[in-house]
Design a protein that fits this description.
The structure holds 2 protein chains of 2 kinds. By secondary structure, chain A is mainly beta. By secondary structure, chain B is mainly beta. Chain B is built from no helices and 11 strands. Classes of the chains: A mainly beta, B mainly beta. At the A-B interface, strand 5, strand 6, strand 10 and strand 11 of A face strand 4, strand 5, strand 9 and strand 10 of B.
Chain lengths: ~120, ~110
């Protein structure tokens, strides 16, 4: 069964420093996608970054990068130069194919709450 | 702004009642996904519609139902509401199945 594990319930980081949020996944499907979403206190879910299982290079989006280690089944999110506005919940998710064509769902981890200190 | 709209933003109702949550996907997206976020269950997939047809079902209760209309907007109907149904309900939209899912702002349901 597919599963996403985030082992850090909460983390602190000093403003302007880099931080790594951990995510491990489990799937037997060779084709999968991994996502990170940010949920600020206002509640919305904001897409940050995507990594496909066949992508040769690690994904990057501005200050966000995904450290994809396929053999270890890990997909850690790295935020460089943290800002106060980065304080939020961060969710790792995996796209899980269904039994019908065009049938996909996201499986989410339990999330990591990041607090950026000034 | 993700381009996905959800109404209402907040909903307060009583046990036993029925409510309807509405979602409009991003322009061009054919898929609509519904998710429930609660304190004890986390984020869970409920159901997916693709171009008007149900494509996948997750942990959706029999008291809950959904549909997607010809203009691609979707509605999630929750009936015989219980206290435990209080949660944040998200709609997400995507194009073909492997596309990124973009989430709406959510509807916060409180059942008293």
């Amino acid at each position: 069964a597919q599963k996403i594990t985030q082992t850090q319930p909460g983390m602190f980081v000093q403003e302007k420093e880099a931080v790594t949020l951990d995510c491990t996944y489990d799937t037997s499907d060779p084709s999968y996608g991994l996502f990170w979403y940010k949920q600020p206190s206002s509640g919305e879910m904001i897409f940050l970054i995507y990594q496909g299982s066949y992508d040769q290079q690690n994904a990057t989006e501005g200050r966000y990068s995904l450290n994809f280690q396929k053999a270890r089944k890990s997909a850690n999110l790295v935020i460089s130069a943290s800002q106060l506005g980065d304080s939020a919940m961060y969710f790792c998710a995996m796209r899980a194919p269904g039994r019908v064509d065009s049938s996909y769902k996201l499986i989410f981890g339990s999330g990591t709450r990041l607090l950026v200190r000034p | 702004d993700s381009g996905v709209t959800q109404t209402p933003k907040h909903l307060i109702t009583a046990t036993g009642q029925r409510v309807t949550l509405r979602c409009s996907p991003r322009s061009g997206d054919l898929s609509v996904y519904w998710y429930q976020q609660s304190l004890d269950q986390g984020l869970q997939f409920l159901i997916q519609y693709y171009n008007g047809e149900e494509r996948a079902k997750g942990n959706i209760l029999e008291r809950f139902s959904a549909q997607q209309f010809p203009d691609l907007h979707s509605e999630l109907n929750l009936s015989s509401l219980e206290l435990g149904d209080s949660a944040l309900y998200f709609c997400a939209s995507g194009g073909t199945g492997k596309d990124t899912q973009y989430f709406g702002p959510g509807t916060r349901l409180t059942v008293l």
